What does this fold into?
Amino acid sequence: MRAIGIILAGGNNHRMKELSQNRAIGAMPIAGSYRSIDFSLSNMSNSHIQKVAVFTQYNARSLNEHLSSSKWWDFGRKQGGLFVFTPAMTADNSNWYRGTADAIYQNLSYLKDSHEPYVVIASGDCVYKLDYNKVLEYHVDKKADITIVCKDMDPNLSVDRFGTIKMNEESRIEEFEEKPLISKSSTVSCGIYVIRRRLLIEMIERCAEEDRYDFVRDILIRYKDMKRLYGYKIKDYWRNIASVDDYFSTNMDFLKPEIRDYFFHQYPDIYSKVDDLPPAKYNSGASIKNSLISSGCIVNGTVEDSVLFKKAYIGNNCYIKNSIILNYVYIGDNTHIENCIVESRGTIRANSYYKGENGVQIVVEKGDRYVL
Amino acid sequence: MIKKEMIAMLLAGGQGSRLGVLTSKVAKPAVAFGGKYRIIDFPLSNCINSGVDTVGVLTQYQPLRLNSHIGIGIPWDLDRNIGGVSVLPPYEKIESTEWYTGTANAIYQNIDYMEQYNPDYVLILSGDHIYKMDYEVMLDYHKQNGAEATIAVMPVPIEEASRFGVIITDENHKIEDFEEKPENPRSNLASMGIYIFNWKALKDSLIALSNQPGLDFGKHIIPYLHKQKAPLYAYEFNGYWKDVGTLSSYWEANMELIDLVPDFNLYEEYWKIYTKSEILPPQYISGDSVIDKSIIGEGSVIDGQVINSVIGCGVRIGKGAIVRDSIIMNRSVIEEGCELYKAIVAEDVTVGTGSKLGIGDEVENETDPHIYNHGLVTVGEKSIIPPGVTIGKNTCIFGVTEAEDYPDGNLASGKTLIKAGEEI
It folds into this structure.
């Protein structure tokens, strides 16, 4: 591959409510066994990109723990590998990353010391599969300066949390609006870009000189008419985890056979860190319908239309319906949980009742618990 | 200078012929166990949990699966700069090249391997038992007694003792005598095949006895040391320990895992069991399924009934299928409407639509009654069973079978069906 990778995973978002109190969105658990950054990382690995940097700053503990070894994505190489860049204090800079462009600027040596001609920039909060080689080929074909991967959204849905794009018939981008309240286009940017490495260095340096920090606003939008920006449309599944509702519906999507088949059974695979957990165990009285169950779970009660993440314990006579139970949750006997997201490491007392009445309820119960 | 206080030598070369077709393509230590594990994971995990970070794995019979499973030891944290796990197959020498002819002979042929770590003690393990044991505690005991060799023993019911090597000790657990599978055992302490030796004593006796054909620990090395009046001690172990050497004990040990709180608990935080886990999605249990008292591995897709069973990773169980009291290993496919009762289905097997396994009367197996018994149906790896056939009890199927292999769509109880070109 003739490119290096950058994954922007620094973000936090108040629309994630309590869920991002303790973790960056890149570390949000997805579909039982994964975290959202796994999708971009696996795409990088499957596209044979051998050198990838992850930029992170917001509450990076979960994310760092997840990325503690690069071997899961086959990045444990002597050549290249996986780099995690958090903000560092130096003699002439003690700033946090003030924006995506600033994050790249503060680690510009990563770009300068590489020799690959192209850079693929992706974000750590999207669920999708994509061969970046195809985007790169397209980029070269079009003689583009920057190629932006984009997708047509349902015109009836609001796109106010995306960047929207309008292209001409040759796919050259004519308009780019960031998070417009009313948009003329329902084509949104997926936050995936291909750009020549030297051009990126040049733009980032200029950006920094002008005290500009944001990649979208200060590079894409600003250079839109000066440089050749092209859109590469994808038709396959792509979701951005930007709000609690997105998060819930993306997880629930994995209960659909076609989505499961696409991600779990079709080439290429998505990789994730493997924990040393025993298989899931179902005791007498368990009843499971239409649910994803991860390793290390012990189920004694009823689980319907739900996603159980790793090591969840469901007590006797529980009823779990249309819910997401995150990692290491203990749910005591006779508990009813419906339309909820139960935050990881929660301990739910026996005989509790939680039901999301208007939409999804987030349950955070960090009680003490005795570990066996 | 390299120095390891204790290194382990894990004997994993045996065929385990009493597991029948389960070991026709893999060595016994590589046979799947408990949904996602292989038998060798238990001694290997015990090693790393006990702080033993140098393990030589002696392979001989069908080593491919073992080799790829162990790799460089990453799952057990046994990828070390010094030590770690090494796979040790027999090798050619200038003179007297031979296979490993006995347990101790295998160790004898690898004296150079052990020597390079300059050990004080050598731990000898076998790769076919399910247990959790802290070898460090055993080593402390060994040192405390000033022993030359310590044998781990386990109290068994006296009527079963005649199946084992039996150790007779004095009140201080000093070994006085031993008997190999005695008719009238004088003690109920069975040897577990786990030994700690002082390296010098082991090396000297291996060299002294090197011409003994089929050099064996139980038969030769221990009696030799005893004759030399070396202090030998028995270390009594009272935890869960299961020899899974026969199909019935293998099946039982798997079934014991699904008890509410099993004697052998894989879910404890302390003393984890490690294995090479593939990166797999979670399992999906559909709206049509019924699950009761079972364990199921990652990546499996269940549409049918799974009752009282142990299901591996990446298994598919079709709509309307019934799997009861059975073991299904990784990546096997049980198609729609199948019924399996007390079946052991090895890896990558396909059972065709509507076939029924484990139906009918109990009839003794015609070819190998000492292997295929207890009413089990055993299906070897990569076998294919055509749709719509009925298979009896105490049967064995191996290879790509077709409808014409089943007269009237039936394989009667007690029959063995092994397709040509595939030896047992």
